[in-house]
Amino acid sequence: MLLPPSETKAHGGDGPPLNLEALSFPELTDVRRTLVRAVSELAEDVPASLDVLGLSPRQGAEVARNAGLAGAGTLPALARYTGVVYDALDVPELSAADLERANRRLAISSALFGLVGGGDPIPGYRLSAGSRLPGLGSLRSLWRPVAGPVLAARTGLVVDLRSGAYAALAEAPGAVTVRVLSEDEFGARSVVSHANKHLKGRLARALVQIEEEPASVDEVVEAARLLGLVAERRGPGAVDLISRLAAPVGSS
Prior knowledge:
Number of strands: 12
Order of helices and strands: EHHHEHHHEEEEEHEHEEHHEE
Oligomer: single chain
Number of helices: 10
Shape: globular
Protein name: Peroxide stress protein YaaA
Largest sheet: 5 strands, mixed
Pfam families: H2O2_YaaD
Structural class: alpha/beta
Radius of gyration: 19 Å
InterPro entries: YaaA
């Protein structure tokens, strides 16, 4: 299962400093090393970093995190990333067995690391899919040639919950895609963004709580329904999650 990252990340970490060789997907190590070096060096120029990263002067602490990448303490990736998707996934409340499956089944798309496993130890950092580091061009041009083949070589079912910007960094051929729709009291449906991240996080939770890894779209739908989600198959390689809106107070 492929998750998006988050701009917000937990601070601190009591794990050992970053060791690129300890991360999953070793095929990505060379590009990771290039980007970590570039981000750290850019952080020596705070105004330039703020500009490249699209940050305001009040966010200088984010630049400081990048400056300290090499020596900072680490956290497992699923504990490092925060925000709506990860709140809905609710890693702290997973059982030990569920957490083991989460670390094994979940991968997070990262602008800095390409892809990381759920349990991979990483420091806090700031870099977005649309960033362009001086002298390196777009992150898409760096990641697609190396991360794309990694995903293309995966066997078994892949469920892609990434946003468009991160999906563009590495294609996942044949992956199951997930769309979130709202449904009003009259049954009319529309694509929405407000429930998108929350429901995708809940689907990720559903897919780590089942013992057998899903092998088909129908099994993804069934796992979602077991957790109380409204899910439907949409064609051979897609799933719709439905957010049903309550009728307005006083309506009849």
